[in-house]
Design a protein that fits this description.
Elements lengths: L2 H31 L7 H16 L14 H23 L4 H21 L1 H4 L20 H24 L2 H18 L4 H20 L1
Length: 212
Amino acid sequence: MDWSGLANYGLFFIIYVGIYAVLALGLNIQWGYTGLFNIGISGFFMVGAYTSTILTKPESFGHLGGFGQPFVVGLLAAGALSALIALLIGIPTLRLRDDYLAIATIGIAETLRLVVMNEQWLTAGVWGIAGIPQPLRHMFPDNYNLFFAGLVIVMVALVYFAIERGIRSPWGRVLKAIREDEGVAQAVGKDVFLFKLQALVVGAFIMGMAGS
């Protein structure tokens, strides 16, 4: 039996589980703690992936890119752009019923998918972008999958504990109050719209980082 192949598959599996765990943590802020019905998860994830790739790729042919920025820059920019899109969606929709947020997010996700598929100058269209740089690859030439799996696990842990700290704070308690009954939260003087907008933006930021 090829144990090295099995080990590599296990690391590959851990990496993907970790990435989707970060994505789920972002969604949990929106839906789990605040009750925001976001269906456009893939859109924020995709924005993060393409933003990070375009900024960090050292060379580009036939699409936007070639900036050669460090991975951390791509990571933060991915989260920031996803958060900005969430902000633009949330401002006109969060004062309305939850249905409108669901409609808006799935509409934006589908729009972004069409942009990615058709704007070849930006994303290379349906062919996608090849040769995505791997962070710190030069430092771990032999056991890179093991290093990257560890990096993803650390990322999951950091995001999880940061969210837990936020949810245990007064801010998090307001989010849970809004989830249970936003009328009561508003009656005690909380700006429900502002807190919902914050939850949407923070969750989208984490989703964008997961995509990167």
